[in-house]
Amino acid sequence: MSFSKKYISLLFLVLVLYSCKENKAKQKVAKLPYFNSADFTPQWTKGTHKIPDFSFINQNGEIVTNKTYEGKIYIVDFFFTSCPGICPKLTKNMGNLQEFYKNDEVIKLLSHTVMPWKDSISVLKDYAKNNNVNSIKWHLVTGDKEALYDIARHGYFADEDFKKTQDESEFIHTENFILVDKEGYIRGVYNGTLEVDVERLKRHVKILRSTI
What we know:
- The protein is an alpha+beta fold and 212 residues long.
- It is built from 6 helices and 9 strands, in the order H-E-E-E-E-E-H-E-H-E-H-H-E-E-H.
- The chain starts with a helix and ends with a helix.
């Protein structure tokens, strides 16, 4: 066999192997796992942990419950309006998601205050106005502190410090965005301050839209 033929054969083999690798990579992201515990170990069988029942009040004084998000894919975060650190970045990225999904009625957003003793309905309303929050797409909720902290830690597994300390009195401050499917199962966790992770979230939402 001539050198040129050997070269062509080798090149063909490399392309075949690369193609196989690409196909496997696509297969791996064709389905999202379920997350049933605070360590976020992915499970590829049907989930066992659903978001528990909740009832909070949004920026317009309306009651927001699980029923509000029934049949919806939604993205969750935790913040407080006077936060000078990561919250402005979280709110900005949630705002970007609101814009990105503005014409998709299936995708909703949900932000919980972790400082309900200060973030009253009127405070949330002003914050919503200042950040161009569309109340049809995005609810900012307040309510009972114990209920808010309980769902953050035991519903969404959003408080990383609590995993270590188990201290119920500790203040919650998390950078996580949590992706929840139409049935109330957690399907992804992302760093809401990082653009690359927000883009990953978008790809995962697309997978959920095509598989559920």
